[in-house]
Please model this.
Amino acid sequence: MTAHKGPCDACEELLQGYLDRQLNDTELKQAESHLGDCDYCRRRYRFELSLRMYVQTTAAERMPPGLLEKLAQLRAVE
Model:
């Protein structure tokens, strides 16, 4: 396994914020610049993005009837 140090480590730390669109301007420029230059991190970004999209489309199960009310009752007890 190849160790990716330096800029890749910094990009790794920014990746979730980049996906969530929560980076400030400086961080955004840093992440975009590195993703534009680094195939490894770009593939990692694409994987994380596709994983998020998959989870969003497949995890849309409906709650069983009455579950929301039961949860509200449990919260009221606490």
Observations:
- The chain has one domain: 7-77.
- The CA atoms of residues 12 and 22 lie 14 Å apart.
- The mean pLDDT is 88.
- The helical segments are 7-19, 25-37, 39-58, 67-77.
